[in-house]
Amino acid sequence: MIRYRFKEEESSIEEAGKVLRPVAEVILEKDGFSVRIPMYIDSGADISMIPLRFGKALGFKQEKEDTIQEVRGVSGSEVPYLLKEVTLILNGKKLKINIAWALVEEIPMLMGRKDIFNKFRIIFDERKGWIDFEE
Fold first, then answer.
1. Helices (DSSP H) in 3-108: which residue ranges?
2. 43: left (phi over 0), alpha (psi -120 to 50) or beta
3. Which of 38, 51, 63, 108 has the highest CB neighbour count under 10 A?
4. Which of 102, 47, 45, 43 has the alpha carbon at shortest distance from 69?
């Protein structure tokens, strides 16, 4: 079992104050280079997504065979992205995943369902303050 603690953050909604958010410290690895990042564990996201600068740090480039796609968030705004393959490491467990490399900066790092959620039973226990990934 892999366990992450919720992270306390200030809400953008003034009345909410501090809130607990499901965040996992993960490693993204590509061609021998790796970067440790926090990702919001988002059961509402179809696919994991990283902003432009993190994809560049991993060595992503737009290849001629790449097709720019768009995903629509809950706000309705569209985010252009390229689909890339990367290794995501959760507490030592390596997963080859497809990730949406956003072509903009203004998106959070999201751990979505594709290639991850089907490998685990994921329990969000806000009262106890953790998220469990059970194989």
1. 52-57
2. alpha
3. 51
4. 102
